[in-house]
Design goal:
The protein has about 325 residues and is of the alpha/beta class. The chain has two domains: about 230 residues, Spore Coat Polysaccharide Biosynthesis Protein SpsA, Chain A, CATH 3.90.550.10; about 100 residues, no CATH class. It is about 45% helix and about 20% strand.
Length: about 325
């Protein structure tokens, strides 16, 4: 029996994000009303998360908080946050993002206009780069669905075309905070997080299964959240890239039955620029590279592209040193003259 009532549960899995969580709750506060519930699942944080929640309890009467007894991992915590929800729809929000001023109104509008078989609403995002002066500055809107109009509906038969038109994995449920899911359909999908536990894409697997099994996806072109991009340390960057490549390789192989849809999903990865492949080669140790290369081949990246990337990965440091030496020589000649 579906016990969810009309409204939206904003489901926030968090871990050691006390400061960003405060900023997220502040961004939501002016827009909340009686039909909006806030559910925070704390993955046994050892920072000030509990104190931050205590600050907002008087301000948000519908705020619900649970602290897990031990760190269960990202995937399980996402599922725990959704399990707390009592409303008809669940908006998944990462604790280090912000809700835009127009976000909640846009989501509510799409819920009102959605078809009865609509299981998921997927919104656009804005991006901001923190401590990354080499990147564009300011809050920058991103269009995850350039080929689709606001309110477009995607069903299982449309997935090959949809995936091939998607510029990033955001359109394939790769970004948590842009997702709004009908609680009844989430609960009704007999797919737990265990098969994909540890991939960080267990929620993605369940959402894809929901669409494959007959649910519909509705496109919301409004920018409903702001994602903060933080610099990933170089020693962790290969691992971060492999989360995407390994995760979506498994999603395709284990979840999508027809080859056309599977290749279309992987085409989002294969359209990554060659600079990504070069970077993966440069960051890989001799022991790591065979697994990285096997994953790239599994998602459809050709041997020739991998070979070119491998060659350029060898040449790139030489070219970089050449330009550094050239610049220093110019400076020296200018100084002596």
């Amino acid at each position: 029996m579906n016990t969810a009532v009309q409204g939206i549960s904003i489901c926030i899995p968090t871990y050691r994000m006390a400061g960003p969580l405060r900023e997220l709750l502040d961004s939501m506060l002016p827009r909340l009303h009686a039909d909006i519930e806030v559910c925070i699942s704390d993955n046994c944080s050892d920072d000030d998360t509990e104190q931050v929640v205590a600050e907002f309890l008087p301000k948000i009467p519908t705020l619900r908080y649970q602290r897990l007894p031990s760190n269960s991992g990202f995937d399980a915590n996402v599922f725990s946050a959704i399990a707390m929800a009592s409303k008809q729809w669940c908006w998944l929000l990462s604790s280090d993002d912000w809700m835009t001023p127009e976000g909640l109104e846009a989501v509510e509008s799409h819920i009102m206009a959605s078809a009865p078989d609509c299981s998921v609403i997927l919104g656009n995002r804005k991006n901001i780069y923190i401590d990354m002066p080499e990147m564009p500055q300011g809050v920058l809107p991103e269009d995850c669905f350039p080929a689709y109009a606001d309110g477009a509906t995607i069903r299982a038969r449309d997935l090959p075309t949809y995936f091939r038109a998607s510029p990033t994995l955001n359109a394939a449920f790769g970004y948590l905070s842009s997702i709004v899911v009908r609680k009844q359909d989430w609960d009704g999908c007999a797919f737990g997080f265990a098969p994909f536990d540890g991939t960080r894409y267990a929620y993605t697997a369940k959402l894809m299964k929901t669409i494959i099994d007959g649910g519909a996806l509705r496109i919301c072109k409004s920018h409903i959240v702001v994602q903060r991009f933080l610099r990933v340390p170089s020693e962790r960057y290969l691992d971060r890239l492999m989360i995407d490549f390994d995760g979506y390789r498994r999603l395709g192989q284990e979840l999508i039955p027809d080859a056309e849809s599977r290749r279309a999903l992987w085409s989002i990865l294969t359209r990554q620029g060659d600079h990504v492949l070069v970077l993966m080669k440069r960051l890989s140790s001799r022991q790591q590279w065979p697994r990285v290369e096997a994953t790239l081949r599994a998602v459809g990246i050709s041997r020739m592209r991998i070979f070119r990337a491998s060659v350029w990965a060898l040449l790139e440091p030489v070219v970089e040193r050449y330009y550094v030496c050239k610049h220093r020589l110019k400076q020296l000649l200018r100084y002596e003259s």
